[in-house]
Specification:
The protein contains three helices and no strands. It has helices spanning 27-49, 67-84, 92-108. It starts with 26 loop residues before the first helix and ends in a 28-residue tail after the last helix. The relative contact order is 0.14.
């Protein structure tokens, strides 16, 4: 299993850089960032913090197909990396729980959130609102 705290840098990178936010990535860099996020979600986040899926706390089995969920989870993962790293100090994990985990999970699992209509074993695609005046 890959470390849950590894950075989103491409393999073989010689320069130490902060990982870029996933919405700014495309192609192989995006694919690799999503792969690393998926490992963290599958091996740490859901087993520890997933809780039961209900109509009042939905979770999509294809969460990676929801851009909002990917953005929220990637931000949560980036904060996890920073606040649980060896130099983060003793209170880093508590700060992550208080300031990041609770809010992100409540937002994602809200009945009107990005997983609304998704059920165990069933993904429901959502259409984004139209934003161009010429569309209407």
């Amino acid at each position: 299993m890959t470390s849950a705290v590894e950075s989103a840098e491409p393999t073989g990178s010689t320069q130490q850089q902060e990982p870029q936010f996933i919405l700014y990535l495309d192609g192989p860099l995006h694919d690799e960032a999503l792969r690393r996020l998926s490992l963290w979600v599958r091996h740490l986040l859901i087993p520890v913090y997933g809780r039961e899926t209900t109509s009042t706390a939905p979770w999509c089995p294809r969460w990676w197909e929801h851009k909002e969920a990917v953005a929220q989870l990637y931000g949560l993962w980036m904060a996890w990396q920073e606040l649980t790293a060896p130099g983060a100090g003793m209170t880093g994990p508590a700060v992550w729980h208080r300031d990041y985990l609770t809010h992100v999970m409540a937002t994602l699992r809200d009945p009107a959130g990005p997983f609304a209509g998704c059920k165990p074993g069933a993904h429901r695609a959502k259409e984004a609102p139209h934003t161009d005046a010429s569309d209407g």
